[in-house]
Amino acid sequence: KSGGRFGYTVGGGVEWAVSDKWTTKLEYQYFDFGKVDLSDLDGDEAKVKIDAHTIKIGLNYKF
Known about the structure:
This protein is mainly β. The chain has one domain (8-61). Helix content is 0%, strand content 71%. The protein has no helices and three strands. Strands 1-2-3 form a three-stranded antiparallel beta sheet, with no helix packed on it. The chain is rod-shaped and about 60 Å long.
């Protein structure tokens, strides 16, 4: 079975000026798409939570 799922995301971040042209940043994001019930051909079942945490760091140059 395939298809899409609805969910939500929350996050935040900060950015610091290193100089007039350079900045660095740190971001966090949480994704949650709920739970899904799975089963295999033998009839074994599992409930799986679909979520993720991401952390990003970045370096920006302003032209």
